[in-house]
């Protein structure tokens, strides 16, 4: 028997659903916050600044960037995971999101289940670099030298970052023993390579392209699946028979768990439209990036695949962050 209480509950639920639908239809009706887990000026921040004004014009509301740096993006990730799924808090995540799941002993959120993938913007290919004064002219030279003298030093921008994963994958692929030296960021690692105190490094192209153009850094091979426009003469490791899984960092929009599908589709479609703008795409390419333009399904699949792959590499190489 249907009671009065049942009717009241049903009516209340109907009103709430109606209000939710209206709120989604009117989104955004106020400024949208975009949380970034790294300081201003880096490759993740670049993507946010690039799209900030165009999205603000499309939405008729400001896109407000909030840089919450620290703990390899964990602080920002937790803030997003705990935010309301109303579309007014978005996350411009870097692929550190997937490596953190593999290297941290515990995280204050569930990497796969506490977020909604929306759209993946672009990647910054991982490249194998040496300094301009290095006698190594190719990846083959580097492998030969490392086999003659085990323990060659490889610098990384930190423990458990993409360059560290690339180093461990490369070491295992070509059968060399290396000494990994972790620095506090890409800049000091690159400077040590330039100075010759560290033999080589895997680093993101977007963070190193200026040094390549200055002639102080020599790229030996691209770690990604294809050559890049700004380094047309540099082969991929795959071409050289040294291919490793692609560790190139990506940068994409996410939201908290439960983000309504209409908002997901709106953000994804608007961003994909902007990435088709030749001027915006050119800005990404000129900084050493590769436009990905992956929608929600493809982005979600990438995240899940990387979490699984990174877990294997981290376990075999003993990469952990307490």
UniProtKB/TrEMBL annotation:
One Pfam family matching this protein: TctC
InterPro entries for this protein: BUG, Bug_dom1
The organism's place on the tree of life at top rank: Bacteria
Record family assignment: Belongs to the UPF0065 (bug) family.
The protein's name in its UniProt record: Tripartite tricarboxylate transporter substrate binding protein
């Amino acid at each position: 028997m249907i009671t009065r209480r049942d009717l009241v509950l049903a009516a209340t639920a109907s009103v709430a659903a109606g209000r939710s639908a209206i709120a989604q239809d009117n989104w955004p009706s106020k400024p949208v916050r975009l949380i970034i887990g790294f300081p201003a000026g880096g490759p993740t921040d670049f993507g946010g600044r690039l799209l900030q004004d165009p999205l603000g014009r499309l939405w008729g509301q400001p896109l407000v960037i909030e840089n919450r740096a620290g703990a390899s993006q964990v602080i920002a990730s937790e803030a997003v995971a705990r935010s309301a799924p109303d579309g007014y808090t978005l996350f411009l995540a870097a692929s550190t999101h997937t490596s953190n799941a593999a290297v941290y002993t515990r995280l204050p959120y569930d990497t796969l289940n506490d977020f909604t993938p929306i759209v993946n913007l672009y990647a910054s290919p991982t490249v194998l670099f040496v300094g301009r004064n290095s006698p190594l002219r190719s990846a083959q030279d580097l492998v030969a030298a490392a086999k003659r003298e085990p323990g060659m030093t490889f610098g990384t921008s930190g423990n458990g970052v993409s360059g560290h994963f690339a180093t461990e994958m490369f070491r295992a692929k070509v059968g060399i023993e290396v000494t990994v030296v972790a620095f506090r960021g890409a800049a000091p690692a690159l400077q040590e390579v330039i100075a010759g105190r560290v033999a080589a490094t895997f680093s993101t192209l977007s963070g190193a392209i200026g040094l390549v153009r200055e002639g102080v850094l020599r790229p030996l091979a691209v770690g990604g699946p294809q050559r890049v426009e700004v380094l047309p003469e540099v082969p991929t490791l795959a071409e050289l028979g040294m291919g490793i899984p692609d560790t190139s960092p990506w940068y994409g929009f996410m939201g908290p768990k439960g983000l309504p599908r209409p908002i997901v589709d709106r953000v994804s479609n608007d961003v994909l439209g902007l990435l088709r703008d030749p001027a915006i795409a050119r800005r990404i390419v000129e900084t050493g990036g590769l436009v990905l333009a992956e929608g929600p399904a493809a982005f979600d699949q990438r995240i899940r695949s990387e979490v699984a792959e990174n877990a294997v590499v981290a376990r075999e190489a003993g990469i952990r962050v307490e």
